[in-house]
Fold these 2 entries.
Entry 1:
Amino acid sequence: MEVMYKSTRSDQTVTASQAILKGLASDGGLFVPVTLPKLNISIDELKEMSYQEVAYAVMKEFLTDFTEEELKNCIDKAYDSKFDTEEIAPLVKADGAYFLELFHGSTIAFKDMALSILPHLLITSAKKNNVKNDIVILTATSGDTGKAALAGFADVEHTKIVVFYPKGGVSPIQEKQMVTQKGDNTFVVGINGNFDQAQSGVKAIFGNKDLEKVMNDAGYQFSSANSINIGRLVPQVVYYVYAYAQLLKEGEITEGEKINVVVPTGNFGNILAAFYAKNMGLPIEKLICASNDNKVLYDFFTTGSYDKNRDFILTTSPSMDILISSNLERLVYKIAGNDDKKNKELMTALSEDGIYNITDEMKAELKDFYGNYSTEAETAKVIKNIYDTTGYIIDTHTGVAAQVYKKYKNETNDETKTIIASTASPFKFTRSVMNAIDPKYDAMGDFELVDELSKIGNVKVPNAIEEIRNADVRHDTVCEVSEMESIVKKFLNI
Ligand SMILES: *Cc1c(COP(=O)(O)O)cnc(C)c1O
């Protein structure tokens, strides 16, 4: 049966490949499957499969207009030796939980799980819809997404990628990761401005109709690698299914046994993927949503009121510093009974007043979810505690999740076996992690800390870090915000 995708804000309906090409619906809504598909295969069969085979079994249920050959080709190109382990997403048992390590890809954060396949899904979608133009990805980044998108699109034929980052507004390791990016189709530009200006600049370029025509004449069109693209969400469902099958294979659980999942959450993409996995039939009991001090989601789950009118707090888990969780819209639409008018009303209230309240009936539909948060001090403490008792070192985002899981267990005494999504390697946030373990480390330089972490944690320094240690800078363009468009044109020779 063909799975079609419809907007959360109107009845605009498209195929999977069209939804991937468009990214966002033209009414500003997000594309969701009209009906969520079921897993068409038993867990018993899945447990004998490789990550790539599980990926096919799951993704084919969502991307029904892709042929078997097309989809398998995308999967094989994405989940290859770019990952430093054949398992792709290994499970590590520690401190009474199973950490699902989603950071073994080329930029050592979980965004690689989806951004390594998105370019292939996108060019396949373009071919299927007779798009002859090359795709130009434009992204503004505050650090992590830019690098993961660059790594995903580097040297992918018929694509080019331009990333704008705020010069001086990203961490030294993040900047070094981006400006050393290889691939002739990549272009990294620092702007003299902040992230918001970078993002507004990119949106203005996207909205420029004259430029669109010039681009089209030259054989190009823009697209986005943003996390609201359904082509980023679907690949994330895979690792929950894979993890469950692995637990069964290892004899950690019995067939049909329910598990909980804890996800450190920002834009709500990762945890929504776990919710979709549950809807496919995977035996998941609770979806535990972990926030940092920007606890807008905790407040939402406890009160039914989503209120972004508050201070934005900079934390040591920056990828979760977010006040508008875009993908929550997909859940709100669902708990409103797939009602696009109701959802639109709430989203309009959010953009106009910064707040909306869901109805009691909608709130009752949230029973699968539990929300809580971890303060900066609690996160540091749990990182140290897990290291001291087990020797396992987790990053700050995973630390937030580990702490929220402790709060959940204290409150509920629930002993259900639990997976914690581990979203970044501790090597990506070395300074915060090492400071949590012992403040004496703050005196060390960035790469000294890397070596020390490797030593005390007994883990090899990931390639992603080794690569940038002595890598040549390949991108040194810096521009004013007002020059962003002309810089893009120059890169494309138009
Ligand atoms: C992006 C990110 C998150 C948040 O994931 P969402 O899907 O946006 O909720 C958490 N941790 C890390 C390390 C990330 O990069």
Entry 2:
Amino acid sequence: MARPTRARVDLAAIRHNYRYAKAQAPGARALAVVKADAYGHGAVAVARTLAAEADAFAVACTEEALELREAGISNPIVLLEGIFEPMELQALDRAELTPVVHQAEQLDWLCEARASKPFPVWLKMDTGMHRLGFTPPDFAAAYARLKACAHVSEVVLMTHLACADEPEHPATQAQLACFSAHAGGLPGARSIANSAAVLACPAAHGDWLRPGIMLYGATPFGEQHPSARALRPTMHLESELISVRGLAPGEAIGYGGRFVCTAPTRVGVVAAGYADGYPRHAKDGTPAAVNGKHTRIIGRVSMDMLTVDLTAQPQAQPGDPVQLWGDLVAANDVAAASDTIAYQLFTGLSRRVPISYSDTD
Ligand SMILES: *Cc1c(COP(=O)(O)O)cnc(C)c1O
């Protein structure tokens, strides 16, 4: 039989989560962010699931957008990093893509472009994230240049928040104030909110939401936040026990002997490791579920396997089902125990792990 490790993706849950995002800001439209292969869930499958209702999709780059066009997706697609070289203008025109413009060179390329039909542009201001975007004093001039281009049909004004996942953080108010001060008088739709701001910062909702991680069922605020219960988990990383043994006090498990048994311990070996995308930094105690019951990782994660504590499940045997994250084990909790975030777990799922899809409401 085939190796039992797989990711089960619940497409109906993604639809639920998109609707939940939109319900936070009635009247606003929402880009469904499907960059990085829809955070590891499969961009084509996710886009097809949302195509009938998504106002638009967002990806990082032209390559990701063309994958969706080739799959027959006809919704607007925003390129969050815009174009990287003028060569891409042709593909942009042909595939009707919407670029973000975040720096002067891109502005030159777009203003000099020849297009078969006008296209919209999203113009980005750097209000304090200090990653991409025009400085606030340069923003109005960039806006005016785009407005003067006959082939630019619409300019959407956008910025990105650095600390929206810490609702009390003063940076968010400062960024919002900066954005209204420098974009305030300019006509056009506004877009500010990532998932965290969709959930916790109504002042940032504007006209276009940009939910990403929340579509995939993980709240940016941790499992204590009410949104953790409102969102439905979408990716279930599952495997099986392939070996079970009993160890005596003093015996150690796996590489480096990191976990040493202090009592008689039943250990289960699971067919999933860091080469599947499970975090190698998972500490002893990281949650997992065997036969639907909670347990913990003990011992260091290896490339193809990891080990779990079965002491409370004396009946457990090879072939029994294991969930590493999903509806029983929150990806956020696995991430927290591994010094990372659910974003990295989802996007790090490896090619070796087959994805199976279900879509039942
Ligand atoms: C990735 C991204 C988002 C989505 O962020 P989440 O935290 O996943 O909701 C929104 N806006 C921009 C510009 C992004 O790059």
